[in-house]
Structure formats: C-alpha cells, structure tokens
TrEMBL record, chain A:
PANTHER family: ACYL-COA DEHYDROGENASE, ACYL-COA DEHYDROGENASE FADE34. It comes from the Bacteria. Belongs to the acyl-CoA dehydrogenase family. Residues 15-127 form the Acyl-CoA dehydrogenase/oxidase N-terminal domain. This is Acyl-CoA dehydrogenase.
UniProtKB/TrEMBL annotation, chain B:
InterPro entries: AcylCo_DH-like_C (IPR036250), AcylCo_DH/oxidase_C (IPR009075), AcylCoA_DH/ox_N (IPR013786), AcylCoA_DH/ox_N_sf (IPR037069), AcylCoA_DH/oxidase_NM_dom_sf (IPR009100). This is Acyl-CoA/acyl-ACP dehydrogenase. Transmembrane segments: none annotated. Keywords: FAD, Flavoprotein, Oxidoreductase. Coiled coil: none annotated. The keyword Oxidoreductase applies. It comes from Lentzea alba. Residues 12-89 form the Acyl-CoA dehydrogenase/oxidase N-terminal domain. SUPFAM superfamilies: Acyl-CoA dehydrogenase C-terminal domain-like, Acyl-CoA dehydrogenase NM domain-like. GO terms for molecular function: acyl-CoA dehydrogenase activity; flavin adenine dinucleotide binding. It comes from the Bacteria. Gene3D superfamilies: Acyl-CoA dehydrogenase/oxidase, N-terminal domain, Butyryl-CoA Dehydrogenase, subunit A, domain 3. Signal peptide: none annotated. Residues 181-296 form the Acyl-CoA dehydrogenase/oxidase C-terminal domain.
C-alpha cells in the first residue's frame, strides 16, 4: 500500500515552450482584433464554430492524432500547453471541445478504420463537433444505471432511451451514446456499449435544457427507436463501461478543471494592484492555481506515458473544481462588484462565475463521488 | 521523483531510520549513522567535502527524514549551510555545521571578527555556523554562545550570539538575504510535504484498524470523504514541493516563483492536513504518546518559518506580469 498518490512533477520541453509562445501571441492578436471576449467557463458555454475552424487551421485541434487522419502527431503535453493557454484566455472553444478532448482519442483507440476515416479528419479541421450521451433521468452519478437500450435488428441497431445534460447536442454533428446492448439494468457494468450516431437524425429529438444562467448549453436527447447502421457500434459490444472509464482520466484532470473561472481572476488582478487586501488574495489564488496546474500537468504526463491515473485524476478534479468556486467567491467578496449578466468586464465575468458555480463540483462526476474514488484508491473502501 | 536512484536512496535511508525512538532534541546516534553513510551531506559537492549528487537526491532524504520526524539537522546542514559553502567555494568544517537566517557584522581586530545575534536553527548542537555578512560575504565561525529557543515541535530554533568571534573562513560571494529566504522556504516546503505524508499514512492505518460502532472507521463514508480530502491536500503539497525542487535544480527562470508558490501551498496546506489528521485520529492522536503530534507540531512550526503563506502570497501578487504568466512560471 503506497502512502500517497503517485504523481511526478513535469518539466516542459523547449518545443512546449515555443508552442506556448506561439499560442499566446495568436490569442493576443485575436483578442486585440475583437475576435472574442474572454468568458468564464468558455469551454462549456462559448461555442464559436468559426473560431474552432481557425484553431483547426492553426493545427491546434486533434493535434495528437496521427498524420494519416489529418492530425499533427503532437504529444499530449503539447496539447496540454495549447489547451491551457486557450482556457486561461477564456477563448470560445466549446464547439470543438468534446470532439478534441474525448472523442478523437476514443475513436482513434476504439473505432474501426472506417469510423476513423469518417470522423477524425473533420475533428482536426475544427469542423466536426461531438456530444456525449451519458447521463439519464435515473442515471446521474450512478452512470452504470443507464436504461437506454440498443437492440440489434436486420436494419442495424435500434436505440431507445433518453439522455440528459448532453452538452452541445444542438450543434453537434454526432453524438456518442452509452446504451445497454445486453442483459438488464441490474447487470450494471456489463452489457453496455457505445454508439456513434450522426446528427441530426429523424428519430432523435433534441430538446433544450435551460439552466439558471438563463442559457441553453445542455439538452435532453430522446432516442425513439432510432435506427443506426450496424457499424455505428464504437469499440466492442459490451465493452462500453471499460471504454468510458478509460476516457475519465482525460476528462477529469485536464486544465479545464481548474481554469474555468481564470479569466475572472485575471481581470480582477489587473485592477487590484493598489489594494493590499486584494493583492494578498490574488497572491493566494495565484499560488493555488500554480499548484493545481502542476498537478494537472503531472497527471497529463502520466497519461502521456501510457498510464491511466484514474485516482489522481479524481483527486485533481476535486481540488481544481473547488478552486474555481473559490475564485468566484473571493472576487465577489473582496472586489465588491455586483454581477451583471452580459455586462462587459468584471461584472459580466462575475455573473458567469456565480451562475455557473454549482456546475463546477457536479459535472464530470460529483466531488463526493470523486472522493470515494480516491478513498478506494487509498485502499479504505 | 520516483526513478531508481531515488528508490535506492529511500530504501537506504529508510533502513537507517528503522527502530529509532530518541527522546532527545538531537538524535545523535541517527546523525552518526547518516554521517557514516554520507547522507547528511548529499547534494553538496564533493570538492568541498560533501557527498555529491543533486538537489533532488537531497530532497528525497530531507522528505523522508521529515516523514519520520527525525531529529537531525540535515535540512540546516546540507540544504542550507552546504549550499552557502558551495556558493562560496569554502570547505565544510568538521562536526555539525548549520546556517544562520540573519546576517552578522564582520570587523577587523586581530584578524577578522564576527559580531551579531543571528537566528540559527539547531545552533546549540553545531560546532560551526555559516552566516552572511552585511556585504553578502559568506563567513564560517565557531559557535560559542547560544540562546536556546524551540519551535512548537521542540526543535532547536536558537539564537547564536557572536561577540567578536574569530572567523574560521570567509569568501566574497554576495549572497542576498532574499536568496537565503528562498532556500529556506524551499527546504521547509519539502519538509512540510514530508510531514503531511506522515499524517496521511498514519490516518490510513488508524481508520483501517480502529473500530467503533462495530466496524472499522474506514467503513464510514464521512471518514472516507475526510481521508480523500486529506490525500488531495497532501498530494498538492508534495507535487508543489517536487516541482519547486525541480525548477531550482535546473535554475529555471521561474524558480523563484516556484519556491514562493510551493512554500505558500505547503504552509497553507498544513492547516488542512493537521486539522483532518487530528479529526480522523480522534482523542488518541492528541496524546503525546502518539506519533501524530510529532508530524502536526512540525507542520504548525514549519509553515511559519522562512515566510508563511501570507508572506509568499504577497510576493506572488507583486511578481511581474499577468497572473497567468506567473502561474506558468516560465521554467526555461
């Protein structure tokens, strides 16, 4: 039994530094040209297909994919650098986010050659967007309780069920669905499979879920005996759970798990230099962000080395998502600024931050679930 | 830091540490064993009498000693005094040699003499103190008079009183007080992470063994949640200290920021770790007989030494550039 979660600090290569400079320069130019306004939680909420295409043309989407699929053969750590620069700047990356983060690696690993040819080049160009159908009305934190069913028929797979909280399904070109192909819901982790369903689909209805920020980022996606071809199965039949778990390391520890409110911190810090109370708080949050970044980077390095640090990723997400809320509360409390939805500057960033804060510690696995993953990793559960 | 060499160091020092239970403020027998194997001066160049090796090698030893609450001044001798002497190109005097935090004054009367009252951890057990003069010169002198003080963990935090003491060696180097502060902050960050790990290890053992209400504490979800939060903070402390050591060893541009952030993180984490640690141990951990207190009193002491979290938060806030440029620390 190890006495701590094993993580090793990573030191950047020269190539990573040069790439960072390049991205920073690009983002500075884009901001100056008015191409975007920094937003909190931009990876969830700021979808801008034109900006995604622009990033694709720079080679910054699907960057780790092999050249034969249009990718750039970059390392996961180079991707980390690009992504964290985009997030820290609050750039509108939501349109391609899920495709880039999760579906590209998943399709590369689990997909057939035909699926790779079909989806990966578009992802790399920043033109093919994805949604992921995981949660359901009766399966939130308890994902293994999914009821959506896929039945094999002579025409292909027939999918029936309802997915909830599906980010970006209203603009996605395809959705990956976790569905039961075999057994009953009581079988839990066995008998689940993943499918890629092209959107729009005549038997798939996408209904908006409006959240307390008054906006539409999420959807309820209803599959009403939606028929998809036999080759829509992603990976092996019955291997859905294992495939989803393998994605979690990528999903949980990335820089988006501590940088969602970073644009607010940066905007506030730019106007607090004369106030010693505010400065100390900026310093506190800076130190915390520095450490969280080291943790996130260490997990990325572990992933890049071919390991799957599920426990460390859960731990980083727990710390990082709490930090995101800490930033919001600190700025609100110390700055005394009143949040205003849609406003420029601090008031608008603060409004986004406050209204999105419940999501930080819910999405991608609630923090309580994450902590039980950590407890199990420590051998006490 | 998990490559083979470090595993070997860990195993060797771990073997030396086995079965110690000294109640003195200085574990002389442990110190002797460390001296015999050269671990007391790891990371100090062989040319000046050290054992060679890099800063990360030394950090492994310091971390492990902190984990065990070992009562020996390796942080003060190798990490601080050894570093100052290496900077100055002066050889290491025999016996225990430690570094002072404060500067002293050098004057000339029958040769070079040193005067001042300098805070010197472990001063009472040292034969020599390495200190810096107001002009930044590195000076070695014998320790004669000492005012004894202790931190919350009972570790010697003495004031060495230098009254016209004859200088043993001096070298014009120009070490700034801020450099000593950073070096001290770095070693305390490593030690804080080590002590925090001890709290976690003890908590894991305790909740697995201790039964209440008919089952092990580990079976309670509330306990599991606490333990996970503890592990998270301990990991954050450890990775921040590791990253700072890495940055300093490589002389990265962002090394000073890394040290500031690591000391801030480990100092702030001390409260979380000691708090959860004691809560999980219940009343048993509050007894002086339990080893937990050795770790938590060190956490409470070390977080204040060489700048507490507020001090380093202010330093980070004053750093040049955007928050993001500080956070990414320019490690090249």
């Amino acid at each position: 039994m190890t006495s701590t979660i094993d993580l090793v600090a990573h030191r950047h290569s020269t190539a990573e530094h040069e790439l960072r400079d390049e991205v920073r320069q690009f983002l500075g130019d884009q901001r100056a040209a008015g191409a975007f306004r920094p937003r909190c939680d931009a990876w969830m909420t700021a979808a801008d297909p034109a900006f995604s295409r622009l990033l694709g043309s720079r080679g910054w989407v699907g960057m780790t994919l092999p050249g034969r699929y249009g990718g750039h053969d970059r390392t996961p750590l180079e991707r980390f650098v690009v992504v964290e620069e985009l997030l820290a700047a609050g750039a509108p990356v939501a349109a391609h986010w899920i495709a880039d983060r999760q579906m590209a690696p998943s399709i590369l690993r689990n997909g057939t050659e035909a699926q790779r040819q079909r989806y990966l080049p578009g992802i790399v160009k920043g033109e093919c967007f994805f949604a992921i159908g995981m949660s359901e009305p009766d399966a939130g934190s308890d994902l293994a309780a999914v009821r959506t069913r896929a039945v094999e028929t002579p025409r292909g797979w027939e999918i029936t069920g309802t997915k909830l909280w599906t980010t970006g399904a209203h603009f996605a070109h395809a959705i990956v669905v976790l569905a039961r192909t075999d057994g009953t819901p009581g079988d839990r982790h066995t008998g689940l499979s993943q499918f890629v369903v092209d959107l729009p689909h005549q038997a798939v209805e996408i209904r908006p879920i409006v959240t307390i920020d008054g906006e539409h980022h999420f959807n309820e996606v209803v599959f009403d005996r939606a028929v998809v071809p036999a080759d829509a199965l992603l990976g092996d039949r019955g291997a859905g759970w294992r495939q989803v778990i393998a994605e979690l390391g990528h999903e949980r520890s990335g820089p988006e798990r501590f940088l969602s409110t970073f644009p607010l911190l940066e905007a506030w810090a730019a106007q607090t230099s004369d106030d010693p109370v505010a400065a100390r708080e900026v310093g506190r949050l800076t130190a915390r962000a520095w450490t969280l970044r080291q943790l996130s980077l260490a997990v990325a390095a572990d992933l890049a080395a071919g390991r799957s640090p599920e426990v460390a990723a859960a731990l980083v997400k727990d710390l990082g998502s709490r930090f995101e809320g800490d930033v919001v509360e600190t700025v609100r409390r110390v700055a005394g600024a009143e949040p205003r939805r849609g406003a420029d500057g601090l008031a608008g960033l603060l409004a986004d931050g406050v209204l999105h804060s419940p999501a930080f510690t819910l999405r991608g696995g609630t923090n309580e679930v994450l902590r039980s993953v950590v407890a199990r990793g420590l051998g006490v559960r | 830091m998990s490559d083979e060499l470090h595993e070997e160091i860990r195993a060797a020092v771990g073997a030396i540490l086995k079965g110690r239970d000294s109640q003195d403020d200085f574990d002389r027998s442990l110190w002797k064993d460390l001296c015999d194997t050269g671990f007391h001066l790891l990371g100090v160049p062989e040319e000046i009498g050290g054992s060679g090796g890099g800063l990360r090698d030394l950090a492994v030893v310091v971390d492990l000693l902190a984990f065990h609450g070992a009562r020996v001044p390796v942080a003060e001798s190798a990490f601080l005094a050894g570093w100052l002497l290496a900077r100055a190109g002066l050889s290491i005097p025999d016996g225990v040699v430690v570094a002072s935090i404060d500067q002293a004054r050098v004057h000339r009367r029958d040769g070079l003499r040193l005067s001042g009252r300098v805070r010197t951890p472990w001063g009472r057990h040292a034969g020599h103190v390495v200190t810096t003069a107001h002009d930044g010169n590195v000076v070695v002198s014998p320790v004669s008079a000492v005012e004894r003080q202790e931190n919350l963990a009972g570790e010697p935090r003495d004031v060495v009183v230098l009254d016209n003491v004859e200088v043993t060696a001096v070298a014009p180097v120009g070490v700034e007080p801020d450099e000593i502060l950073h070096r001290g902050a770095l070693v305390r960050a490593v030690q804080l992470a080590g002590a925090a790990r001890a709290v976690l290890a003890s908590a894991r053992r305790h909740v697995a063994q201790r039964e209440q209400f008919g089952r092990p504490l580990a079976r309670f979800q509330a306990v599991q949640q606490h333990l996970a939060a503890l592990a998270a903070e301990v990991t954050a402390m450890r990775v921040s200290a590791d990253a700072a050591v890495l940055a300093v060893e490589a002389s990265d541009r962002g090394a000073a920021i890394a040290v500031a952030a690591a000391k801030a993180t480990t100092s702030a984490g001390a409260h979380v770790v000691a708090g959860i640690g004691h809560q999980l141990h219940g009343a048993l951990g509050y007894s002086a007989e339990h080893a937990l207190g050795a770790a938590t009193t060190r956490l409470w002491s070390w977080r204040e030494e060489f700048g507490n979290e507020s001090y380093w938060h202010d330093r980070l806030a004053a750093a040049e550039g955007s928050v993001w440029s500080v956070v990414t620390g320019g490690d090249r």
